[in-house]
Amino acid sequence: MIPTFRWFGASDPVPLAYIRQIPNVRSVVGALFELPVGEVWARERIAALKATIEAAGLRLDVIESIPVHEAIKLGLPERDRYIEAYQQSIRNLGACGVRVLCYNFMPVFDWVRTDLAMPMPDGSTALAYRHADLERLDFSQGMPDMPAWANAYSAAQLNDILAQYRTVDEDALFSNFVYFLEAVVPVAEAADVKLAVHPDDPPWSVFGLPRIVRSAETVQRLLDAVPSPYNGVTFCTGSFGAAASNDLPAMVRQFAGRVHFVHLRNVKRDGTHDFHETEHPSAFGDVDMVAVVRALLETGFAGYYRPDHGRMIWGETGKAGYGLYDRALGVMYLQGVVEALQRGAKA
Ligand code: DNO
């Protein structure tokens, strides 16, 4: 298993030089955040990102993410134009040596939290989600400024897009997803770029929108619909783990061979639809990290993983969930788990 670390580009308060000092972390997860959704990722721009990362003594193996245009998710007539752009971006990633593309198929919103700095008893802060607080959000002035959300829509745009989703139920979203996969998976095969869909976070419907990457059944349905090894999943323990009904080690075993990227973080469920994020080790949350890593190793997973969201500790300020310190602690803990399990297997 190869440890990686997410980097948000030149504006990231965490410099590449610091990532380079984390033991064994040599691979950075990057993206071209400045490009508008739907635009082709030009080869020169990917190559420039790769050159910046390599100049710091690191590699660019994984992209997270190329956002999928809403027209594709909604199944609008103009989707083919955006799918062609996506295909070209995949070819360009492959030509630059990128091997995994993490993306998501969540309508309108990417991951959502209601509290970006929940005070913890030890003085740190963590990300939290309260379903009732989310449902109370007022969009009349447009989207609140939440770093979790990729698109900043005006109030009018948001109302328009939410209205368009009123006729898109889970089955319609699934068909639109399969239409997209049938077009992009053959391109990914030719380019040798593994596609890894990120689960819905949280793994249930928000604002009445359909969400279809949230459980063993929903993911299996997508994997079966386009049964190529290039149609895979990002196994995110924090996203799947927010729902008590998801048995994480069993899901890892079920998806064996189709897991191409892993996000490892811990969550503590505070109710059926409420949770907060915690330190990475098993003791702090509901995710049995050792059991998940064991399942990954036993199913032959040898790909990329990264520590996911960390708390804010030691006075650090910065991008919520993506500070340096707690993620660095997390990746060291995870490496310890991997090393111990691998040695145990050999003993
Ligand atoms: C949150 C991230 C997600 C992820 C996208 C992938 O911290 O894991 O925003 O990058 O859903 O497209």
Keywords:
347 residues, alpha/beta, TIM Barrel, eight-stranded parallel beta barrel, four-stranded antiparallel beta sheet, 12 helices, 37% helix, globular, binds D-mannose
> What is the overall number of helices?
12
The CATH topology name reads TIM Barrel
Q: Report the bound ligands by name, code or SMILES.
A: D-mannose
Strand order of the largest sheet: 1-2-3-4-7-8-9-12
Q: What can be said about the biggest beta sheet?
A: 8 strands, parallel, barrel
The class by helix and strand makeup works out as alpha/beta
CATH top level is Alpha Beta
Explain what you see.
The structure is a single chain. Helix content is 37%, strand content 18%. The protein has one domain: Divalent-metal-dependent TIM barrel enzymes (TIM Barrel), CATH 3.20.20. It starts with a strand and ends with a helix. The strands form two sheets. An eight-stranded parallel barrel has the order 1-2-3-4-7-8-9-12. It has a four-stranded antiparallel beta sheet with strand order 5-6-11-10. It has helices spanning 16-19, 43-55, 70-74, 79-95, 131-135, 155-164, 170-191, 216-225, 237-241, 248-254, 289-298, 325-346; strands at 2-6, 27-30, 59-64, 100-104, 115-119, 125-130, 194-198, 231-236, 259-264, 266-271, 274-278, 304-307. A hairpin with a 2-residue loop joins strand 10 (266-271) and strand 11 (274-278). It is an alpha/beta fold and 347 residues long. D-mannose binds at residues 64-65, 102-104, 110-111, 198, 263, 309, 321.
